[in-house]
Amino acid sequence: MKAMLINAYGADAPFKAAEVDKPDVKPGHVLVKIAASSVNTVDTMIRKMGKELPLSPDTPAILGMDFAGTVEAVGDGVTEYSVGDEVYGCAGGLADLPGTLAEFIVADSKLIAKKPTNLSMREAAALPLVAITAYEGLTRAGIQPGHKVLVHGGSGGVGHVAIQLAKHWGAEVYSTGGGEKQLALIERLGATGINYKTESVEQYVAKHTGGAGFELVFDSVGGANLTNSFEAAALNGQIATTVSMCELDLTPAHFKGLSLHVVFMLIPMLHHFQREQHAEILRDLAQISESGGLNPVLDEERFSLDQVADAYARLESGKGMGKVVVDYH
What distance in Å separates the CA atoms of residue 243 and residue 207, rounded to the nearest whole number? Predict the structure, then answer.
């Protein structure tokens, strides 16, 4: 099969087209012919940082985590999938799991689900990593109908899904963005937009919550921005974040009695821990999508498998709006 390999890591490490052996299906897994995959920030970090990240595969490596495609073969012990099923998931591209920048992947059946029937392969491939992350953060933070929810970075990959899921679950959703295009997208997705460049946390907390704060803050920016989340949260509020590799003073969180939920959705893949939860979440996400509650936003630029370096550059440029997707056919 054709694959795009990384032979050495680095900032602009080249992807080399190569013919590699098509993998054999194994027990508990399915062989999937990939139709599309999407690029995530963690993919670009692995390419750039290599072994500085404990989750990077040995080179030569096939990167890429998200995919949508068609089942070509079913391993022993797999009963829920048949040849010809259209599936989606996040199942490789790190540690010892070969990734999606190839024509086929052997995926653990516990890490995939049947593709939402209302989405194209491109759209379905955009969802798994970001949608599982958003789902996990909101549910772990105990989202309830009527909650006032603040999403930081609502025009990004994770953020734009978090807005839609929070709306689907009955919350009143607000979201920060830094420009007209970002705020237009946030509003289109059904949230009230907040321009963090022109409004202080104190100002928007006063304006939208009467000074009480948001019951739930989903911070897809994280890092130093967590101090803004602490300030924006209500007393005894909940904060979910996807980025917490930083040192912070937790004093403000202490005096408000805040709970902090750190979401690292790669744990099931990395540690072979509770993988079936990803299948359950993906099945639920498919139902939400089919009911009209979730539509991924795709970047307008299109890329083929041969143009994967351009796709990575597009995501890293920060100019994209929505998920960057690679098409295979």
Answer: 27
The pLDDT-based confidence of 319 (bands split at 50, 70, 90) is: confident
Share of the chain above pLDDT 90, in %: 98
pLDDT at 321 over 90: no
Tell me the domain boundaries of the chain.
Answer: 2-127+271-327, 130-262
- In the block, which residue shows the tokens 């009209």? 292
Phi, psi dihedrals of residue 2, rounded to the nearest 5°: -85, 140
Confidence (pLDDT) at 320: 84
Which residues have C-beta within 8 Å of that of residue 311, sequence separation ≥ 6? 39, 301, 303, 324, 325, 326
What is each CA distance from 134 to 208, 261, 275, 298, 325, in whole angstroms? 23, 12, 17, 17, 19
Q: Where is 114: in which H helix or E strand?
A: strand 112-114
Matching CATH number, 130-262, of 2.60.40.10, 3.40.50.720, 3.40.50.2020, 3.30.457.10: 3.40.50.720
Nearest to 131 by CA among 14, 273, 328, 289: 289
pTM summary value: 0.98
pLDDT of residue 104: 98
Closest by CA position to 169, among listed 285, 278, 323: 285
CATH code for residues 2-127+271-327 = 3.90.180.10
Q: Is 292 exposed, middle or buried (0-12, 13-18, 19+ CB in 10 A)?
A: exposed
Mean pLDDT, residues 43-47 taken together: 98
Q: Which two tokens stand for residue 295?
A: 């539509």
